[in-house]
User: What shape does this take?
Amino acid sequence: ERVDPAMLDHYIARSLAMRPPRPVRGDPEGQYESAIAGMALAIVPYDRRTARALIEPMAARMRTLAAGRAPRAWSSQSYGRLWAALALVDAAWARRLIATLPAAPPDVAVSPRASAARLVILALLYRGADRGPWVYRQYLGRRHPALPAREF
Assistant: This one.
């Protein structure tokens, strides 16, 4: 759907008002974080400061989020959304957060640090006009408005 560019701030504010509430009893599956990261990914091309404000609480808890996940979840769609959002908001910030993550335990082949680095690199590989369609397709599960339906 297309909107009048003069109304962009209004539509971003409406989107923020419709975000889901934080679960009172916790969110072991990370669904809340995934939804908020998806919202940040959709907003970042238009308002980087607002996207950052959305994901700052998650960034502050990144070590805890990574430690609470099974190794297979470190490369999951929701974890990828979060790291893509961090990378697109501020790549240097994402790099600093990666450095705080634990390395792989001796009995695990993949670490949260290595998975996060891979996800950030993937998000930053695409430049300019190619980035939006890739992010939409990869993390938001829908066709980018600039792509014809047959290319999705």
About this structure: Residues 63 and 100 are 7 Å apart (CA to CA). Confidence is low (pLDDT under 50) at residues 147-152.
